[in-house]
C-alpha cells in the first residue's frame, strides 16, 4: 500500500480508506500474501461504471441542450417586444 500512496498527496490511511471503498464497490480487488497486499483493477466493473457515467452524461447534455434552445427562444421573443 505504501507504494500506492507514495506518489499521491495523501496519507497512507487515506489511501487505504479509498481502496476499501473501491474494493467494496467491486472496482478493485486486493489480495494479501504475507505482509504484501496486491491490488488489481476489475475491468468488467470499471466498464459498467463507465457505461453508467456515459448514460448520465448523454442525459444531461440533452437536457442542457433543451434548456439552451428554450433560453435562446425566450431571448428571441424578448428582442421582438417594444419597451
The structure class reads alpha+beta
Shape: elongated
Q: What's the count of strands?
A: 2
Work out the helix count: 3
The overall number of domains is: 2
The H-and-E topology, N to C, reads as HHEEH
Q: What does this entry look like structurally?
A:
The mean pLDDT is 90. The protein is built from three helices and two strands, in the order H-H-E-E-H. It has 83 residues and is of the alpha+beta class. The chain has two domains: 2-41, no CATH class; 43-83. It comes from Kaistia hirudinis. This is DNA-binding transcriptional ArsR family regulator. One of its GO terms (molecular function) is DNA binding. InterPro entries: WH-like_DNA-bd_sf (IPR036388), WH_DNA-bd_sf (IPR036390).
Amino acid at each position: 500500500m505504501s507504494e500506492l500512496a507514495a506518489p499521491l498527496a495523501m496519507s497512507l490511511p487515506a489511501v487505504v480508506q479509498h481502496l476499501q471503498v473501491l474494493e467494496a464497490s467491486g472496482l478493485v480487488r486486493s489480495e494479501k500474501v504475507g505482509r504484501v497486499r496486491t491490488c488489481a483493477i476489475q475491468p468488467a466493473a470499471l466498464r459498467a461504471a463507465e457505461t453508467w457515467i456515459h448514460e448520465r452524461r448523454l442525459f444531461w447534455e440533452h437536457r442542457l441542450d433543451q434548456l439552451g434552445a428554450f433560453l435562446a427562444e425566450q431571448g428571441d421573443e424578448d428582442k421582438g417586444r417594444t419597451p
